[in-house]
């Protein structure tokens, strides 16, 4: 049965602070499914006196990853630097949520609509494995990897914009800024391990890295594929939700959005986390992560794929292009795949 209520704060989770009234959970077999939906992150600090004092304290330390973000670009971070910043800063009581995002990510500009408290969380009770999708971790690949656009591609109005501002110092700075304004992210979920000690603090929780044991030993490449045709068969849906993580309209030159949705059937569940980019009249991109599990089996299938194309190469008629380019789901079948990886994630009784 699908019920709504407030739950205890789970081990370290950027999507946990600020739970809203729209917080749902559903349990089936060995799985607990949780979603939270809340308001957009404020666009500036909401407690400047307290936050400035805490910022000064943090920035006086030797940890350079906590320094205030540059106004001209987004510094590259390693995964270790990002994780260290997150664990050090996110539960700092002397910072508002905007300042936490600013210090952890050090981005020159956050997406216009960042849903900082939204999340989808899957908890496997027997193994204590938690798979979560939240906005903070979804934004992390932007500063760690910085995909941007293929070399030479710009928004359709950029040439005229630059010609009109050739002698402007600000224009030269913007063009040279190390900032991925497409907010491209190949985020495929956050893995954590629930604590046996229910009184433990959130900051004491163990976040699992896919590139390190024990999680790296449980995630292995596989030739098995998610049966998409089986998922197209009409059958009962016990639980469904779709959660937005962030969205930006690219200064009216397109859209970049990231969301995650789940549906639970009597015999299985299916998750799709999708990043979609459309640069008007120029380019489209998808980063998809699909997770599929049949109840009773001891593993999940996870498929990560990248699709992208110049819009001119899609060979769409004018009428078809106008209809499809505003509908990511319908457009998806027309965009060629660039790469795809499928993993099998074993649900070990204990991942300690």
Helix-strand blueprint:
Blueprint: E1 3-4, E2 22-28, E3 31-37, H1 48-59, H2 79-89, H3 97-105, E4 113-114, E5 119-124, E6 129-134, H4 135-144, H5 158-163, H6 169-176, E7 190-193, E8 206-208, H7 215-218, E9 219-221, H8 228-231, E10 239-248, E11 254-264, E12 268-279, E13 283-294, E14 299-310, H9 318-324, H10 328-331, E15 337-346
Antiparallel strand pairs: 1-2, 2-3, 3-5, 4-10, 5-6, 6-7, 7-8, 9-15, 10-11, 11-12, 12-13, 13-14, 14-15
Helix pairs in contact: 2-3
**What is the number of independent domains?**
1
What is the number of helical segments per DSSP (H or I, 4+ residues)? Answer: 10
User: What is the first-to-last residue Cα distance?
Assistant: 31 Å
Average pLDDT, all residues: 83
Helix content: 10-25%
Percentage beta strand: 25-35%
What does the largest sheet look like?
8 strands, antiparallel
Order of neighbouring strands in the sheet with most strands = 4-10-11-12-13-14-15-9
Task: Give the helix/strand class.
Answer: alpha+beta
Radius of gyration: 21 Å
What is the number of strand segments?
Answer: 15
Name the shape in a single word: globular
Any overview of this molecule?
InterPro entries: Phosphatase_reg/MetRdx, TIP41-like. One of its GO terms (biological process) is TOR signaling. Residues 193-202 have a biased composition (Polar residues). Belongs to the TIP41 family. This is TIP41-like protein. The structure is a single chain. With 352 residues, the chain is of the alpha+beta class. It has one domain (3-41, 110-150, 178-346). Helix content is 21%, strand content 30%. The chain contains ten helices and 15 strands. An eight-stranded antiparallel beta sheet has the order 4-10-11-12-13-14-15-9. The protein has a seven-stranded antiparallel beta sheet with strand order 1-2-3-5-6-7-8. A hairpin with a 3-residue loop joins strand 11 and strand 12. Helix 2 (79-89) runs antiparallel to helix 3. The radius of gyration is 21 Å and the shape is globular. The protein starts with a strand and ends in a 6-residue tail after the last strand.
């Amino acid at each position: 049965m699908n019920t709504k209520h407030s739950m205890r704060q789970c081990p370290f989770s950027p999507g946990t602070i600020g739970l809203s009234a729209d917080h749902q959970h559903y349990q089936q077999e060995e799985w607990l499914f949780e979603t939270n939906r809340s308001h957009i992150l404020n666009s500036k600090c909401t407690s400047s006196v307290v936050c400035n004092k805490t910022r000064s304290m943090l920035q006086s330390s030797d940890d350079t990853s906590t320094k205030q973000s540059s106004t001209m670009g987004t510094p590259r971070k390693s995964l270790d630097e990002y994780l260290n910043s997150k664990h050090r800063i996110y539960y700092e009581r002397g910072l508002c949520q905007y300042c936490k995002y600013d210090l952890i990510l050090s981005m020159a500009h956050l997406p216009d609509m960042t849903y900082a408290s939204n999340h989808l969380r899957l908890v496997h009770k027997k193994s204590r494995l938690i798979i979560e999708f939240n906005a903070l971790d979804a934004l992390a690949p932007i500063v760690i990897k910085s995909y941007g656009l293929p070399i030479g591609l710009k928004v359709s109005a950029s040439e005229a914009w630059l010609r009109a501002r050739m002698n402007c110092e600000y224009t030269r700075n913007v063009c040279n800024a190390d900032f991925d304004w497409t907010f491209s992210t190949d985020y495929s979920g956050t893995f954590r391990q629930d604590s046996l000690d229910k009184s433990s603090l959130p900051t004491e929780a163990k976040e699992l890295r896919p590139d390190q044991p024990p999680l790296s030993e449980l995630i292995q490449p596989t030739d098995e594929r998610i049966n998409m045709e089986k998922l197209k068969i009409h059958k009962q849906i016990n639980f469904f939700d779709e959660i937005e993580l962030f969205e930006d309209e690219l200064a009216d030159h397109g859209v970049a959005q990231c969301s995650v949705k789940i549906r639970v059937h009597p015999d299985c569940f299916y998750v799709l986390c999708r990043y979609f980019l459309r640069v008007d009249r120029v380019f489209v991109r998808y980063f998809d992560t699909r997770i599929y599990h049949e109840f009773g089996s001891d593993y999940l299938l996870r498929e990560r794929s990248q699709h992208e194309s110049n819009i001119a190469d899609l060979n769409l008629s004018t009428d078809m292009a106008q209809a499809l380019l505003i509908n990511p789901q319908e457009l998806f079948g027309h965009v060629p795949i660039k790469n795809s990886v499928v993993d099998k994630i074993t649900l070990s009784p204990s991942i300690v």
